Amino acid sequence: MAGLPGWLERLGAELTSLGERMEERRAEEDLRDGPEAPQAAPEHVPPPPDYAPAVAPRPDPVAAVPWGMRVAAEAGWRLLVLAGTLWVLMKVISAIQLVVFAFVAALLVTALLQPTVARLRRMGLPRGLATAVTAIAGFVLMGLVGWFVVWQVMENLDTLSTKVQDGIQELKRWLLNSPFHVTEDQINQIAKNLTDTIGANTNEITSTGLQGITVMVETLTGMLLAMFSTLFLLYDGARIWKWCLKLVPAQARPGLAGAGPRAWRTLTAYVRGTVIVAMIDAIFIGLGIYFLKVPMAVPLAVFIFLFAFIPLVGAVMSGALAVVVALVTEGVFTALMVLAVVLAVQQIEGHILQPFILGRAVRVHPLAVVLSVAAGGLVAGIGGAVVAVPLVAVTNTMVGYLRSYSRENALKASPPPHGATAIEVAPVLPPGEAGEPK
């Protein structure tokens, strides 16, 4: 019994040391199982039984969309951005329409006069003197043409008024004797309705006249802007073009630098060819009207010349104007003769003059001409119809050159063919060439 306390003391000491060792081992396991410690391998998951239904894995959402729909979506948002940009651009142009039309008119006049400046400089004249001589001569010629037209209209206005009244009476007699069974009361009622309409809209006509004064002021302002712009474009056009190229990103600058001169040559060829064709139309149709004794033959010829700058539509409008004047002044037979002259000259223009004078440099499909003239007329009136076709021609030239330029650069950047590829792309000469037996 005396040794019992010693045994209990030794057992307590061993239990204490065992507890300390277990605490140390638990601490070591906690350190080993910390966040930086490697995770234990997952337990093996048994495969599902054979009778379980197969579940297909869910694909990536991008891969689930069909390829055509993805392409359409990519093209769609780009088209929306482009349409928004064009809409904003059209709003800006409509806000400064006077300035835009004046500058476009200056470009067209410069394209007409610039070859003369180049010819005078080759003859030895300084650039400033050649520009001044060409611009003054061109502006004086256009001013004389305008004064001559106004003078002819004022000189023949009384005669035309008398002729129109006689023509209306002749038309009234023809309607009474025609198979349409038109009575005099119906004709008088139509005339009364026209008179009442004019009387009821007197205020609108007066306001239109007041707006006409504003239009005259804007027209004079646009003419002055066009004249100054033409002078600077004739004198310093090359330097202005180089400055514009600096606004373009450097990677696109070489291609645009090559496309710009080609577009300018297209515009020059279009304006020069259109002027020549318009002069031929005006001369021959004017001579036909003159020999048929239709009054105001010279003003009508000038109107035919001006309307020729609106492709397709302008020829129809000017020809219709000449036929109407002949109808109300000289009768049905003269009107039919004028119509025959107009149709003959326009056929010669469409099949001989335009292909020969304009050539392939500005050849645009007739459907593109009609659509561009219609769109230009809807957006900006007569000015838009005049500008539409040269804009389409210039854009066609630039796009064609840039496409060829990018294709050429792609071919230069591609590695040269080698091995079997070189044999496949090697040119095959026809028999009889390069020493082959015939």
Automatic annotation (TrEMBL):
Main location as per UniProt: membrane
Pfam families referenced in this protein's UniProt entry, alphabetically: AI-2E_transport
Entry's Gene Ontology cellular component terms: plasma membrane
Segments for region (Disordered): 22-53, 413-438
Keyword entries, A-Z: Cell membrane, Membrane, Transmembrane, Transmembrane helix, Transport
GO biological process, one term: transmembrane transport
UniProt feature, compositional bias: Basic and acidic residues: 22-35
Superkingdom as given in the UniProt entry: Bacteria
Subcellular location, record wording: Cell membrane
Listed transmembrane segments: 86-113, 125-150, 213-235, 269-291, 297-316, 323-348, 368-394
InterPro entries in UniProt: AI-2E-like
Compositional bias per record (Pro residues), positions renumbered to this chain: 44-53
Topological type in the membrane: Multi-pass membrane protein
Family, similarity comment: Belongs to the autoinducer-2 exporter (AI-2E) (TC 2.A.86) family.
Name assigned to this protein: AI-2E family transporter
Species whose genome carries this gene: Streptomyces beijiangensis
